[in-house]
Specification:
The complex is a heterodimer of chains A (247) and B (251). Chain A has 247 residues and is α/β, with parallel strands linked by helices. Helix content of chain A is 50%, strand content 16%. In chain A, a hairpin with a 2-residue loop joins β1 and β2. Chain B has 251 residues and is α/β, with parallel strands linked by helices. Chain B is globular and about 50 Å long. The chains are: A alpha/beta (247), B alpha/beta (251).
Amino acid sequence: MLATLTIEGCIGTLTLNRPEARNALSLDLLEELHARVDEVSRRSDVNVIVLTGAGKAFCAGMDLRAVLDAPSLALTLLRSLADLTLKLRALSQVTVARVQGAAIGGGCGLTTVCDFAITHADSKMGFPEVDLGVCPAVVAPWLVRKLGAGRARAVLLRGGLMSGDEALAIGLVTLVTPAPTDLGPATDELVSRLATGGPAALAATKRLLNELDGSLDADIVRKGAELSARVLCTPEAQARLRARLTG
Amino acid sequence: MIGATIERGVATLTLRRAAKRNAMTPELLACLVTSIGQVSSGARAIVLAGEGTVFCAGFDLSLCREHPDGSVMRALLSGLSDVIVALRDQPRPVVMAAHGAAIAGGCALLGAADFVITNDDAKIGYPVARLGVSPAVSAPYLRLLVGDGAARERLLDSRLISGREAAGIGLATQSLASAADVGPAAQATARALANTPVEAISATRAWLHEVEGLGDAPWRALRASLALTGEEEERRMLPKAWTTRPTDSPN
């Protein structure tokens, strides 16, 4: 299974399970994530969900290898990511991304839609899309909501990656632990605290926040997928990707 | 009034009225709009800087005093709005080197930037309500940068904040220890942007504008500022600009 769901008490753990590819988001992995998220959305006994990745890295980003051979796949892949972000955001449960190692591009986008994100000081996070000639249009609406437009602008236009400490400074993550080994205990502590909240109160609060910040506007995210796919198919992006992925 | 150079893909536009702390006149603003149009197609990134000790001290109020009917104030507000719109609408990323001071209209300019570099001791803010002038024209952009709460504080309170505080609330991207380092840091940021794939940057920037969804807010904001110009309060309070100074002490 490329994505697994385990449930202990009122806490669900959703795991990206493709460690040999640093959990890069292939179409298959995305489809399994959709299925697991649908599954957990129906579990009224679960009120906190941890999103994590198996192995050394949370997620290396979109798996764009397939797109090099079949550019038409770009739109399918990005639409799937866009719909997954909408689905994660709409969950009535509180979501916590536990980021070990790296969360890059679309992977960092998944942490952005979660209510909380927690990582360690020297993890690598960010959106290097523009460096590759790609436009991070699906994550842009989420990042603007999370960081505010000014900081989102600087992060997305500058490209590159940042450390966990830097991610904390701009508000991309909620909490940073000194060492990767502290990440598990710190997440457990946060999650058990969140789990003490009344499920109906948490769900109502989350629904209100989603309404207030426009999170339920699916059109802008889906339009972002179309724009991102279009830019991904430009000669410049294709040439840079080919150099990066085959070099 | 405006210096314009293009080097290695980076266009640098410089406010050149150092003797007046780069205070804006209607002519300077019109000249700036023209320069933006001229450089944006030939460059891959734009730096806006100010010559001398400060980035920009705001409107040249001595001109307004000579025209109590508000005609110059109206021209300044409209010209400022035109500059901000021109910078946002052109496709290249914009870096501002806001050293020393960015006050009132000078602070409003920061709303048009993708990156703002300043220094820790710089003085930044909108001390204009005390002159009977509404900073409404800045509001749409300031809300985007710092959120509603901080935007209210900054627009309604005439206190100037430091560059370090500005970076803390998101009004500046980066605050450096020394004012002398601001220009070089802005150039370095712009050079890095100029080396990034140009179509990806333009598309991302245009998309961010769409996501921000300002709609007609800039136009309504300008109208709100214009509504007060030449009115009794402004005519009474504006002359006090020469007898009182904005406070920059911690509140």
